[in-house]
Amino acid sequence: TINIGTLVIAKDIVVKIIPNIEKLTEAQKDIEAVVNVEQIITALKGTAGAAVTPTLKGVKNARAEYNKLSSNQKKLVMNLADLTSLESADKDAAAVEKKINAIKVSGKADFYKRFIEANNAYNALTDSIKNHVKNKERLHSLEPYATLVNDFILLDEKATDYTAKVAVLLGTLSSPDSVW
User: Fold this and answer.
1) Dihedral angle sign, alpha carbons of residues 35, 41, 44, 47
2) Cα–Cα distance between 122 and 30 in angstroms, integer?
3) Quick count: other Cβ atoms within 10 Å of Cβ 36?
4) What contacts 68, CB < 8 A, 6 or more positions away?
5) pLDDT digits (tens, 9 = 90+) for 117-146
6) Secondary element (H or E) of residue 80
């Protein structure tokens, strides 16, 4: 039997009336599966104007659900570009996180170089992708120290104002307003 609304009709009668009922039923299942994946992706993106930062787990879950679809169902997903964009954002954010983690704090030029590389990579991201960078606070907290280290590195010992510049930098370090 097949239920159509409140009617219960024998399957052989329905097949005579609607010869492609199995195809229609299969198409309905396809549409339901596609709508489910589209809703998962839409939830990750949020509504227009809403600030949503999807988790990597959420993005991976959406990709896993998409991958479960048949090839024909995949062709029907209208917001696949949104999922791909989110995956790209996570990759870009992860690359910047790796650069930030590679910063070894020291008073040497290598520290400043790594800070600048990470900071430039972070600044090149769009605002929405910056929200994916989990260790951005570390980068921001290192900025005053990196600036100071660079100022010391750039000091010219032979310059006539060397002593005065060193005094200013040391004053910055010992200032009550100092961040360290």
Assistant:
1) negative
2) 41
3) 12
4) 33
5) 999 999 999 888 898 898 999 999 899 888
6) helix 80-101
Whose tokens are 């062709």? That residue is: 75
**148 vs 171: CA distance, rounded Å:** 11
15: tokens are: 């097949």
**Max mean pLDDT range (16-30, 97-111, 142-156):** 97-111
Rounded to an integer, what is the distance from CA 157 to the centroid of its chain? Answer: 45
Q: How many residues does the chain have?
A: 180
As beta bridge partners, residue 8 has 3
Euclidean distance between CA atoms 132 and 92, whole angstroms: 9
pLDDT tens, position by position, 76-123: 999 999 999 888 888 899 999 999 999 998 878 899 999 999 999 999
Q: Using DSSP, state whether 104 is helix, strand or coil.
A: coil
State the amino acid at position 118 in one-letter form: A
The secondary element (H helix, E strand) that includes residue 7 is: strand 7-9
